[in-house]
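My current task is to audit a protein record that another person submitted. My question to you is simply how this chain folds and whether the tokens agree. This is what I was given:
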Amino acid sequence: MTDPQILLLLSARLRGRGAAEALEETFVGLGGDGVVFPSLLEEAERLEQIRSRGEEQRRSLTDAGVAELAAHLAAEADRVGRADLVTAYEAFLPLNRAFLAALSAEAETTELAVLVHRLAPVLGALADQLPRFSGYRARFDRALRRAETDPVWVASPRVDSVHTVWFELHEHLLATLGRDRSRER
């Protein structure tokens, strides 16, 4: 089981500059307990791992938070089997390219659903190793259902759209492996 404080830091990384409500949504989706979220957030801010900015109180990781998260995720990847995580990531990459191409071509929701279906074995393998990956399937299903009648749910960053969930999954994989987008192939 992942330490709730690490889930909070991971939520801040995945949401970028998100409001507390967005961080909490991600935190709960990763398997965290929404009841303890406010105290964890307060503690992370006290430890200067997360900072709050602007009128909207958007939260982001500090350098200390980035370092704490990276160290924990590196140790965790080594413990559960980095090679298996890399295999799952490599299986994700061609699906990611197809997903981005489909979005660029303004694909129908059914095409995106096929890609999400093809992603299921990757999600299953990841969730077997790290249970915090298990919530993505339900989030994809919810976004795809809503996208059938409202195109906002395909790619809007303002909702938990298909693209938002995909982007977050990709970022989650990168964080878990200690990689960043700039070095992707």
Remarks:
- Residues 82-104 form the longest helix (23 residues).
